[in-house]
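Q: Here's a chain of 548 amino acids. Please give me its 3D structure as tokens.
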Amino acid sequence: MQTQDLSYKLNNQKIAVLNAKDMLPYDVSVEVFSLENVYTVAENTYARRGGEYFSDCLVWGNTERRAGSVTLNVDDTADGKVFKARAELDCLVRGVKIRFDNLPLGELISLTDEDKKITEYGLQLKYPEGWRSMSTPLLVFKLDSGKFLYLRCLDDTVNEKRFFIKAVNGKMRVDIVQDQSGTKISGVYEVPAVECGITSDADEIYQRHSDFIKQTYKLEEYGDSRIVPEWFKDISLVVTMHMQAFTGHIFHTYESAYKDIERLTRLIEGKHILVYLTGWEGRYYYKYGDYTPDARLGGAEKLKECVKKMQAAGCKVMAMYGMNMANKNLPQIARLAEISEFQSVSGAKFHNGSVDWEGAHHYDFNDLVQLNIAEKTWQDCLFGQIKSATEEYGFDGAFLDIAACHVNDKNNKLYEGVVEFCDRLRTIKPQFLVSGEGYYDGLSRAMPLFQSGHTDGKLHYHDRASEKLFTRFSREFAHLCIGDLSRGSTGVHELGTNTDTTAPLRRGIIPTIALVEDTLDKAFDKVEKAVELSRVYQSEYLYAEKVD
């Protein structure tokens, strides 16, 4: 796990820093990454002028000079310091690390999945990571003193960052590596500022960071957000309707899906139900890139009838699409795969396919290709298919699978493409809902509803650390892999079974149930309890959207 370590002592000058408010001393150093090596500031070469440190003596392998320079500015904040670095090389600068040594050791409490003890083994994290760890570049540690140490990156857009955290002799080391955007990489990098401080109130730093991402991404408060359809503010139950699995097994046809919804509307008014159709186009994942009705599920007319009847019962219907995955054997995909495929900043392409029907062979299924929605050819193709399906079958929303994926693509800026694509989708029809899998901070600009994250079926909810970082702007529902209430079946999802079958009751999490072919027949009493939870959600949260 210690991939940020090198196997030798670095010849790298450290700068002694003192946080005057808490009399906290620690050390800071800088490393510069090209596409081929790492460069350090040779010891005793910084020239200091006030809070500015400058060196033009960069070395690799601890001894060999490389043309370039590092400037580090250190300024005071109300409860700590802010660090602004600039790096130059006579080649491309991939990224810059700011390393903190001798920080007080604490427990990390700001991740999506769980609190983590920091050990001598070390912990590596990446941003953006939309399923289980870093949805925003903020680290908050609870200290033995009862205070909170925090570090955060003040970037003006979504860019890749890596964090390495390790206990060292009772203290803590934190490395923060920030990479240049692949579309703008050059020999000069103005590194986004990093703030480090100590506060007595964790909520205060969550609020401060929430305000920062609101301003940075031009987010709107959820209750006033223009990308939230008015009808969605009545939704208190998301029904994951499993249709056809990768293997071709059918959980619901279009006709039986409606029949299950009709039974549900005897328990709860239809206007509170969002029906989420998964595998509606045929073999889940395998048919990604061809979003047309499947004959085995009933064909086009039955799909149209299914959606129309659900809507007549008051429900809204959201169809699932793969935003960055498609089957390259489809003629329309084969034509664009080469130019739309993700390409990393170093030039690598992602030829490792995707998941299939069982997790043992993840990413060893090579019929699917990973595509960048920011590339116009693929974006136009997918937009055209969603527009056509929506106009033909009347869907009320689109769910974008793997929406929180991020690649530092050298050809197209992925995050900007996601925002552009979602804005285009909302032009298809008035009050059209756009939703997606996973979450990171900037995505709240693109869509208001997200699917939770998970690790091997254990669900992680994006509001865990603080409502201020998520619920202020967005809502979520349980991941596709949540088990159904009769036998824990995950339907079309490759996990198979899951003991997680319900979502916790919190403002930001909309109650969710999964339906396979016999859920209502075999677990109707449990479904009734889930519906009751939906009613509680209505009374406690649905019409009171202000976050305390």
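Q: Can you summarize the key feature?
A: The chain has two domains: 15-217, 232-322+379-542.
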